[in-house]
Amino acid sequence: MKRNGADNMISIQGISKHFGEFQALQCVDIQIEKGEFVVLLGASGCGKSTLLNLIAGFEQPTAGRIDVNGRQVVNVDPHCGMVFQQYALFPWLTVEENVAFGLKMRGIAKAERLDTAHRYIEMVGLQGFERKFPGALSGGMRQRVSIARVLANDPDVILLDEPFAALDAMTRQVLQDELLQIYEKSRKTIVFITHSIDEALLLSSRMLIMSARPGRVVTDIRNDLPMPRNADVQLSPRYNELKSRIWGTVQSEVMRSMQSAGK
Amino acid sequence: MKRKMSRAALITISAASVLAFLLLWEAVCRLGKVDPIFLPPPSAVFDKGGTMWRDGALWTNVLASARRVMVGFLAATLVAIPLGIVLGTSSVSRAIFDPILSFLRPLPSMSWVPLSLLWFGITETQKYSIVFMGTFAPALVYVIEATRGVDPLLIRAARNLGASRWQVMREVVLPASLPQILSGLKVILGLSWTCVISAELVAAREGLGFLIMNGKEFFQTEIVVLGMMLISVTVLLTDFVFRALEGRVLRWRE
Known about the structure:
The complex is a heterodimer of chains A (263) and B (254).
Chain A: E1 8-19, E2 22-33, E3 37-41, H1 48-56, E4 63-68, E5 71-72, E6 80-83, H2 95-99, H3 101-105, H4 110-123, H5 139-152, E7 157-161, H6 169-186, E8 189-194, H7 197-203, E9 206-211, E10 216-222, H8 237-262
Parallel strand pairs in A: 3-8, 3-9, 6-7, 7-8
Antiparallel strand pairs in A: 1-2, 1-4, 4-5, 9-10
Helix pairs in contact in A: 4-5
Chain B: H1 7-30, H2 42-54, H3 57-89, H4 91-104, H5 113-120, H6 124-148, H7 152-160, H8 165-202, H9 208-217, H10 221-249
Helix pairs in contact in B: 2-10, 3-4, 3-6, 3-8, 3-9, 5-6, 6-8, 7-8, 8-9, 8-10, 9-10
C-alpha cells in the first residue's frame, strides 16, 4: 500500500478530535485507495461515527487534516455521500423526489433528474414505488431509497454509518448482498461502519479495527475472501480464520474499554 | 358494553341537539319570559336574516369582514413565514429580532386601534393594519417554534446532498415545519377574526362588527344576535376551508 500516493481517495493524517475534556479520536492515520471497500469495526463509543462525520465535513478535527480526492475537507461536500442509520429521507417527498434531491440542488432540469433517479431506483429494486412517500415503505425499502439517493448524486466516496443496524436479520442480509452488487458495479470508494464482525467480513476489501477511549486504529486487515461474494462465504475455512483473528483483537479491546469505563 | 356509534347516528344526535336548543330558546321568548329587546326569539333573528339576505346587506357585511381578515392574515403570514424560518435557523438574526418581538407580543390588537386611526383614519388600510398587528407577532412565534422542531438529521442529509444554506431553508426547513406552521396558522386565523370584529366595533361603516354595534344603537337586538351568529358561522366555514387546504398540502402525512 502506498502512502500519500496519487491513488489515495481518502487521506487521513494525524486526526485528533476532542469534545471538551473527552478525547474521541487520537492521532488517527488512514490512507484509503480509490475503489476500496473499507469497514471500520469497533465497539460502540470507539469514535468510528466521529471519524465518519469528520470525513463528511459535518465536524472539524481538533488536529490533523483530511483530504478527499485530493482536496482538503473544510466543509460539508456532496462528494462524500452519507447513508445514515435512520435513513434521513424527506418524508414530504416521494421516492423519486428523494432520490433526485441532490440533482435538484445542483439545478438539473426536472426531466433529466427524474430520469437519473429512475435508473437508481431500478438499481435498488424499487420500481413501482417511485410515487410513494417514505412513510408507506418498510425500513429495508427506506434504506434502499437512501442508498439510491446517494448514488444518484454520483459522489466520489460513499460513507455508511451502521446502515443496516436498525433492520431485521433477513432484510439486512438481502441489503448486504445488494450493496455488494452495487459496489461491484459502481466501484465507488466505500467507508462502512459496523460493530458486526460478520458484516465486516462479508462486505469489506479491508477492515480497520478501532479501539475505544481514545479512538485509534489498532489493526488493519486486508480481507482476501474472493469476490464476488454472497452469504455462502461465511461457510469457508478462511472466513472463520479471519473471524477468530478479528475477534481476538476486538475482544481484548472491548475488555479494556469495559475495565476503563468501570474505573 | 359501549358500542361505537355510526357517523350518521352521531350527526343526527348533533342536529337534534341544535334543534332542541333553538326550540327551547323560542319557547322561552314566546312564553313572554324575556323582553325581546334583551333576547329576540330565533324566528325573529332568522326572519331578519332573510330580509337582509334579500336586500344584499347580509353579504356586504360578511364579505367586508372576510376581506379584511384575508388581507390582514395573508400579509402577516407572508411576512412571518420567511422571517420565522430565517430567525429559527440563525441565532444571530434571532438575537437581533428577539427583543422587538418580545415587545410586540404582549400587545393586544385593540391597543393598536388609536394609533392606527391616527395614521390611516377610518379606512380599509386601518382594518388591515389592526389584523396585521394583532396576528403578526404570534404568527412569527409559531413559525419559529415550528422550525425548532425540524429533525437536524434531515438538515445534515440535505447539506450532504449539496444543498446550500438557502436551499436548506426552502427545501427542508419550510416543508419539514409546515405541519406545525399550519396548525399554528389555524389558531392565528381565528385570532384575525377577533381582531377585525373588535376593530369594526370601534370604527367602521360595514362589516359584522359594525352590524352588531349598529344593531345595538337602534335597539334592534335581532340584528345583534344575527351578527353574532354570522361571525360564528363564517369563522367555522373559514376553519373548514383551511382544514381542507391543510389536508391537501400535507397529503404525505397519511
